[in-house]
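Subject: design request, 426 residues
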């Protein structure tokens, strides 16, 4: 989950707009794909995998022939509550990310912010207060994230106006209590028939937010497939300031190994460019879109130490900060997958790392098993940020800040990006 703005927060909001319906063609597409996209790409904070249907592939048309806008340099980073500890402020103080989003709060069945949940408690705790103060001291912005996950939960929420009314009041009050600069809305597993209701809520939430805090901004997180593009389109039409395109979870625990956020693929699956073209086709403005990228990787048991080797079991999330000694070791030599744009580490059951020499006797040991770790680095993330810039996007963002804690290269690369350093897309 989950988005970025200018460094100084000058306001400059357009006038609130009346609720508008999503493009009928896009909605029809989403309705046709609803069942297949129910577990689609980018629909949860845990990798779940993308849609891979022929119908979805047809949704991506050729990009518009009109010139793309010049890309921006905004950066937006989500800090989940489980990363809010006594060292997170120090970590964020060296990050150039211009908007920090505290993830997350949710609501009760009646619509009020649920104060019993850990997310709320961390955000309103002493550590939460220290994060807010530190972000503002650096001249950056801070958002509170409202999340709503699950088809049945969202159906209940978006079908009850009174519940939404209570949520609007409670969320705006929370922004004031925390001293935040805006809200991020992360709704996942939304029934496509509720898109219009979602759009109405986005418009009402933004109007209430700006009425209380004129410089506030509203960001929405949306998935990388057809349902996400439709959700993003209706959110923007109803006043959302930014869209955080969750450009990850293209691979899942049950899929074959590969990048969570692939530049390209040779297996016919979806990739970042496919999603960016899809969003353009749905009419989502590039100038309001942020390309969300993963600060986590995935690890699978594999048949052998080679790119494209099939998995022999389910994969799992791999957090770089939890493996800092491994990444810093001289033995940790990555294979670069140039097609997908990701680093790959092959680790054997005997502890050795890397692709063995075929002539070595250990390489022939039938008892030896392998796992493959697919994870981005500052260099691979730079390539993907450059892709977003080539599409004229407002900037990029990350799930999740803290996953790269204590590792070199990230702050330096991101600082260069915010300062307009030219990044190439090989």
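Subject: RE: design request

Done. Sequence follows.
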């Amino acid at each position: 989950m989950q988005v970025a703005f200018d460094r100084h927060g000058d306001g400059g909001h357009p006038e609130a707009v009346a609720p508008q319906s999503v493009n009928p063609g896009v909605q029809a597409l989403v309705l046709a794909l609803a069942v297949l996209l129910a577990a689609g790409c980018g629909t949860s904070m845990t990798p779940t995998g993308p849609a891979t249907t022929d119908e979805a592939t047809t949704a991506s048309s050729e990009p518009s022939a009109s010139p793309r806008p010049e890309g921006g340099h905004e950066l937006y980073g989500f800090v989940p509550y489980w990363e809010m500890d006594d060292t997170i402020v120090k970590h964020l103080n060296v990050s150039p990310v211009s908007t920090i989003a505290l993830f997350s709060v949710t609501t009760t069945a009646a619509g009020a912010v649920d104060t019993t949940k850990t997310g709320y408690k961390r955000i309103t705790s002493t550590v939460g207060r220290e994060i807010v103060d530190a972000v503002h001291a650096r001249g950056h912005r801070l958002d509170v994230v409202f999340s709503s996950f699950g088809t049945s939960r969202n159906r209940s929420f978006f079908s009850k106006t009174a519940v939404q009314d209570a949520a609007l009041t409670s969320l705006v009050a929370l922004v004031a209590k925390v001293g935040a600069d805006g809200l991020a809305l992360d709704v996942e597993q939304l029934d496509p028939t509720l898109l219009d209701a979602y759009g109405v809520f986005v418009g009402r939430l933004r109007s209430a937010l700006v009425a209380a805090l004129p410089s506030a901004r509203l960001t929405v997180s949306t998935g990388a497939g057809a349902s996400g593009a439709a959700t993003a389109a209706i959110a923007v039409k109803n006043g959302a300031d930014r869209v955080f395109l969750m450009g990850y979870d293209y691979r899942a625990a049950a899929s074959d190994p590969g990048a969570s956020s692939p530049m390209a693929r040779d297996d016919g699956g979806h990739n970042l460019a496919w999603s960016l073209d899809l969003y353009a086709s749905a009419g989502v403005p590039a100038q309001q879109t942020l390309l969300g990228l993963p600060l986590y990787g995935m690890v699978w048991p594999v048949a052998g130490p080679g790119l494209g080797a099939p998995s022999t079991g389910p994969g799992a999330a791999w957090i770089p900060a939890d493996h800092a000694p491994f990444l810093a070791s001289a033995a940790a030599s990555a294979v670069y997958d140039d097609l997908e744009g990701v680093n790959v580490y092959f680790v054997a059951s005997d502890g050795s790392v890397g692709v063995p020499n075929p002539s070595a006797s250990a390489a022939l040991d039938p008892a030896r098993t392998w796992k493959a770790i697919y994870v981005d680095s500052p260099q691979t993330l730079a390539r993907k940020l450059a892709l977003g810039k080539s599409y004229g996007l407002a900037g990029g963002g990350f799930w999740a800040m803290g996953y790269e804690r204590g590792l070199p290269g990230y702050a330096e690369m991101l600082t260069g990006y915010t300062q307009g350093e030219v990044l190439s897309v090989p």
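The chain has a mean pLDDT of 86.
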